[in-house]
């Protein structure tokens, strides 16, 4: 790859307030700390509470223990939306254990920290950020406790139920205390049957939610190696675990993540703010970026694996007919006509797929002003959430004026030059 000599900071017209939200997120993190230990215990116990077979299905569940568990969404979806308590009010295992079907999956999907898509280059990129090559595969929680290990996909459905070398991950004499547990944020890479660990939430019952990313990465690398979880599969360790290499986001680190050889198929780059704690939901302190050289799928494809002629967007319907993103607070993209709503039978919370027409997206002062949308259909029923605002904008940029690796390198070089000038002036 040729040497990059770009010395300009990347600038584009404001299409988001992502940098401002990064600063606010760090400020809130400093001002308020949640009870992360209790949150981790609830998550670990609830994952297994909802996975316990009922007496009428115990034999069938035993026979299929090693296979992904399918959910009959059609028969439960409407009852779940009408009868289940509000997800944000569910705080303990007794409440969560009553959830079924779609609401169960939605609760677990909300426990993951979801990166925003990078639509502007962060300030202090080389000083305050890590970068890693994201593996292609299924994003999931992996939880070990009570002598077994369970992984759940991003939509909440169980992927695997298996023994592992993680703390309390298998029924062996040498395993950890019964009250111990471990929670990992992983990507399951199908080709080599490996769980690649991108973050660690808990280890041996010790919560890492309120630890910064720098400490979590250090802890993950050292503890995984000590546990034997990185060893080849065996009788009490069905899948291998492997940490993903993490680099400082300077010029050498960025190019190593972008062009370096890894044992898995890449699916873009992940950027972590070094000071960020682990928080559920979308966060601007973790970012994902792709181009055609480090990902097979930069732009979303249809069911045939082909890029549609027009960008597709999945949004959530509200009572007043507006359609919104999955962000908190959400971004309104438009409003459906009440006559169309009455004929369609769609209800609040329905996910709807739209295409972006030739009018595109219009931004004013970093905010969405107008979107030219056309309704298409309902997305796959296994889908749990609408698209985030940053994903919609990233996909739009990828079709028109994408961020490129040279833009990052230019920003890093510009920041380095400014630091050198500051040092000279202070000297």
UniProtKB/TrEMBL annotation:
GO biological process, alphabetically ordered: snRNA import into nucleus
Chief site of localization: cytoplasm
Gene Ontology cellular component terms for the protein in this record: cytoplasm; nucleus
Gene3D superfamilies in UniProt: DNA ligase/mRNA capping enzyme (3.30.470.30)
Subcellular compartments: Cytoplasm; Nucleus
Stated role: Functions as an U snRNP-specific nuclear import adapter. Involved in the trimethylguanosine (m3G)-cap-dependent nuclear import of U snRNPs. Binds specifically to the terminal m3G-cap U snRNAs.
The protein, known as: Snurportin-1
